[in-house]
Amino acid sequence: MALVRASRGIRTETQEIVTLLLQDNVAVNSIRAGTTPLCEAVKSGKLKTVMLLLTSGASVNDRDATQQTPLHHACDWNNIEVVKILLKRQADVNAKDTLGFTPLLIAAGWGRETIIDLLLAKKVDPLAMDDQENNVLHICAANGKANIISKLLTAFPKEMNSILIARNRHGWTPLDFALRCGHLSATKLLIQTVLQVKPTILKTQPRTFVHTRFFVVKLDEFNVDEKYQYRFLEEGTGKTCFQMPRCNWFIQAGNRDEYEEVRLFSMKYENKLRQYLAKN
User: Fold this and answer.
1) Which domains does the chain carry?
2) Is the CB of residue 77 less than 8 Å from the CB of residue 43?
3) For residue 226, what are the contacts with CB-CB under 8 A and spacing of at least 6?
4) For the chain, where are the alpha helices, taking DSSP H only?
5) Could you tell me how far CA 34 lies from the centroid of its own chain?
């Protein structure tokens, strides 16, 4: 426990304390309080402590109680230099945590472009899904990360085209998320891309005849008392974030004006998309 606490420290003497503990043969890979020394060092972004732990025998694919690896945490906390170190030491880019998240899914959800580029240079699985069958496009669309969607379409055109209208366990497509969450750029990009792809290339579970519902709700229509739904305002932007029963991660909603723009834009393509997707 002492090593875990010391590894998360941000004071200047942190590395010296970690060094002393390691000299006393403290178990470098042990889990205490649900986490490990390396995972805590990665979260704090202390490069010297990370390197010290790795050279002292800490596993680059160490896992905490949620099965997250140091690379998961580095992507979550946007510690780019730490990501570089972990990748050089052959960190598993496709490791899944208890929710089925890979480092790519985490980085995509936050819109970490630099980290995405680093992961794409490795043999990353672009079709990975979480335990609710959300793929990387679901997660990007829900958080309005059109820039990441565009990057993935360029890097993996065949794979991304095949999952453009894939449904998660609850019947939602990436476009459903973009529409419902009020993200204009993501909605435009997804609609335009879907209409450019031949229906035979699109893959989805045959749960309904028409595979995409065009349903946009206003922010004030969310039921804040719904069981397992949590809402909060993101500091700085003032945008509403929420977590719904159909997914295990937080979603960032667009602002009120953007919701109306999404509604008006999607209406122009509604009939065309319904006919197009029904052919599939």
Assistant:
1) 1-125 (1.25.40.20), 132-280 (1.25.40.20)
2) yes
3) 244, 245
4) 2-7, 14-23, 37-44, 47-55, 70-76, 80-88, 103-110, 113-120, 136-142, 146-155, 157-162, 174-180, 184-196, 256-278
5) 22
Contact present, 198 and 204 (Cβ < 8 Å):
no
Q: How confident is the model at residue 271 (pLDDT cuts 50, 70, 90)?
A: confident
Helices (H), 95-183: 103-110, 113-120, 136-142, 146-155, 157-162, 174-180
Residue 182 pLDDT level (bands cut at 50, 70, 90) = confident
Distance CA 165, CA 244 (A): 20
Number of alpha helices (DSSP H) and beta strands (DSSP E) in the chain: 14, 3
Q: Which two tokens stand for residue 217?
A: 């709700």
Q: What digits encode the pLDDT tens for the residues 116-158?
A: 999 999 999 999 999 889 999 999 999 999 999 999 999 999 9
Name beta bridge partners: 241.
232, 252
Beta-bridge partner residues of 230:
243
| Range with lowest mean pLDDT among 3-12, 56-65, 103-112 | 3-12
Mean pLDDT (whole number) for 262-267: 86
What CA–CA distance (Å, rounded) separates 108 from 252?
13
Please calculate the CA angle 182-106-154 and round it to the nearest 5 degrees. Answer: 75
Quickly state the pLDDT bin for 255 (edges 50, 70, 90): confident
Token couple for 13: 């003497």
What single-letter amino acid sits at 35? Answer: T
CB 137 within 8 A of CB 174: yes
| 3-class SS of residue 241 | strand
